[in-house]
Amino acid sequence: MAALGLLAEFTVSTKVGVFTGGNHSLDPARLRQAIEQSCIDLRHPPGLVLLHNPETSLERLDDTRAPDALAEACGVLINAVSTGLCGGWGISTWSPRPVLAAVTPLRPDVLMTRAGLTVGAPVLTLIEELAGRLDSCALWGMSPFGGDATDPAWREVNAWQFLRQGPDCTDLQAVFRTAYALPEIERVAVGTGDPSHLRALVEATGLEIDRETVAAYRDLLATARPAAR
Question: Mind telling me which Pfam families this protein's record contains (predicted)?
């Protein structure tokens, strides 16, 4: 895209916080360097930089250190916005509990979390609590298929029941569109390796969610007994 001069036609979002070997870090110097490298690689400041899965690092810290570590890491992203290295900043988290426990008053532009039918009631509640704590940030979703859009289970869940149109879409389209309501999110990150798959998901954004059915589902999730172990 950079070579073809197309970056201006897109809003590019990226993440920092995971380094060589899959090592997570909240070290301010490493985060700053990663943001600067993103600008070099893209030949353009990204529109948004997300702090990637900070809970992995926070879980290694005691309760007294974790809030400062998270605040310092977020401060790097805030400074990157103010100095023109990116257009906005946010937090991306798979497990919101450690972030919720450590977060101090912040105003990120975006909170990205997992979304969809694989997210249980406790995590949905934590996501909504964290979003509320972060003062009206936009809420984005990821992993609407739990990491595997080819899982045969998606043909069995009848996710079209969460839509007003009924079963006049594919199973994957129904699952994907439902993810926008579990929790309530504005955008969903998906893979782009298969153009036909991506096209189907883009088309699914025009489907209408049945809010009453989703609310009933949330009530069932909240009252369901944990599975026996």
Answer: Aldo_ket_red
Directed axis angle between helix 28-42 and helix 66-82, to 10°?
Answer: 30
| 107: DSSP letter | -
For the stretch 200-219, pLDDT in tens is: 999 999 999 999 999 999 99
pLDDT in tens, 177-205: 999 999 999 999 988 788 899 999 999 99
What type of residue is 53?
A: N
- What pTM was estimated for this model as a whole? 0.89
Which residue in this structure is represented by tokens 């955008």?
A: 187
DSSP code for 50: E
Q: Does CATH place domain 109-222 in 3.40.50.300?
A: no
Enumerate residues 6+ apart whose C-beta is below 8 A from 5: none
Contact yes or no for 89/77 (Cβ under 8 A): yes
Identify the bridge partners of residue 49 per DSSP, sorted by sequence position.
14, 89
For residue 72, report the phi and psi dihedrals to the nearest 5 degrees.
Answer: -65, -40
Q: Are the CB atoms for 28 and 72 separated by under 8 Å?
A: yes
- Provide the residue ranges of all domains of the chain, joining segments of one domain with +: 13-100, 109-222
